[in-house]
Amino acid sequence: MVKLKFFITYARCMKKKKDLELKDYELCFIPVPVYLISTVDEHNIYNIAPYGMVMPVSYHPLIISIGSSKNRDTYRNIKAINEFVLNAPSSNMLKKVNRTADPVPSEVDEFIHANLTPIESKIVKPPRIEECTTHMECKTMWIKEVSEEAKNRVIITAEVVALSLDEDLLRTNLCKQKGLMRPLYYEKHIYFTLGGYIGDRRMR
Q1: 124 CB neighbour count, 10 Å cutoff
Q2: What is the band of 195 on the pLDDT scale with cuts at 50, 70, 90?
Q3: Does 2 fall in a domain?
Q4: In this model, does residue 200 exceed pLDDT 80?
Q5: Which end of the chain has the least Cβ crowding within 10 Å, N or C?
């Protein structure tokens, strides 16, 4: 009888799950961090574009992968030059981040369009974005199509060859450092920012 009561109580406390259509993916995904990718084309025209499909795949060596459409100037520039910079914008840059997403012609310098400042990179040809907090200079390793069903989508994998950040963000305490970065997150036309530290891997 006691066991029966326990199982009835347990069943009542269980979370109910709701099946979704694949088109409702945004309800299951955690918002992704926003990066501004700066590139340069073969005519030395600067381009900037916001990207959320960015993921580290190795820390030693430091390698990242990016999901991109073939229709973007960013993809075409990376394919031609094999270099780019991942710049991390802060939440106070939201309006300028949105301007980098404007559908402007490829011959338009997007630093000028978004009112952002190019600064010379340490190793790669594309410039860093001064207003961003951190920068990862990258050299392309390979580019592959995602699948037969998604021929317009590619995965760009690159090695990070140089890192830099705002000097006042240099902190050994990552909790404080990430808070000062004020990173920007995105999901389905909505932006978010970092809530704050709640624990670490030692917690059980």
Answers
A1: 23
A2: confident
A3: no
A4: no
A5: C
